[in-house]
From TrEMBL:
It holds the Pfam family PHB_depo_C. This is Poly(3-hydroxybutyrate) depolymerase. Residues 202-403 form the PHB de-polymerase C-terminal domain. It comes from the Bacteria.
Amino acid sequence: MMYRAFDAQSDFAQQTRNWGRMLNQVVSPWAGTPFRDQANWWSAGARMMMRAGLTFARPDYGIHSVTVGNREVPVIEEAVVATPFATLLRFRKDIASPQPKVLVLAPLSGHFATLLRGTVRTLLADHDVYITDWHNARDVPLSEGEFGFDDYVDHVVRFLETMGEGSHLVAVCQPAVQALAASAVMAHTKNPAQPRSMTLMAGPVDCRISPTSVNELATSKPIEWFEKNLIATVSDRHKGAGRRVYPGYMQVSAFVAMNAQRHSQAHQDLFWHYVSGDADKARAVESFYDEYFAVLDLTAEFYLETVKTVFQDYTLARNALTYRGESIDMRAIQRTALMTVEGERDDICAVGQTMAAHDLCASLPPHMRSHHLQAGVGHYGVFSGRKWEAQTYPLVRNFIQSHA
């Protein structure tokens, strides 16, 4: 019933967008007349209507070229291997000199991996970049089976094996946990494809440290509450009909609620940008929310296992993580160098939570470790924006190259 109700709401949002387009077509011709002020108001309202609701298809990465050295090089998206739940996507460049291979682990938390396009674009100048391009669970047929915590780890291992020896991991937010797990699994099995380095950026390794509102929510209810109240069954109109999921719209709603005033103000500003004709400022707000309101569903088993394992039982933080029923010890990681990055103002993953990975990876010598606290940034500023490009990225680049 929950999913059907949301489908009905989505249908209404689509109608609202249609009405907005019709209204905009009617008032646009009046923009150059003596009635332009009134036309601008009506047009602004119509364009706001055109943005109603969420979208459920992956946006484009939009990375068509990158500057390498002193020349502009075309970038081609290449699907290297695909499973029902994800694609290993490569941003291929035609250059003569090989670059370090980097697998960017995108969070599976209600947004598409395209949320990291800025991270990828920055990395591309100096690296051969791949990314975990997650699929919307509501579009995966039930016959394809389940996808849980261990399945994410499986994907990391398989993708690293596909990329070959000498690769590096860059995990953004949530998958810092799976990056550690996969590295430990590959160390235990002496897998030759275990990564040369892993960079964990704003990841919830130990949520007992300076708990945020996100952490407190996870511990305020038993896991049964999350299953009863936040899990829905995909309706018959979608390919994944019958699959139990944590809907992306719930995750985005929770994020919006955390900063409701800021998001409300942003949309008020967008309306006035439309009215005043400030196209550049309007485009900047549009671009952010086009991505932010593009959502995907998570499988119920992955969501519940993550909440239980990472945020309630602190299994990784206690070095008690298991994989396929077997214990995995983070101290087995001896060949994979570790860098952690945190943001001074991060209100999602607090300072200290990611750095805790160094205590877990106790077998690594000092020269294989690095930590960076980026001043003046929140969660998203750790891996995107000007300070990421100018201050954090050069350190990440140098760390990868020193262990290549």
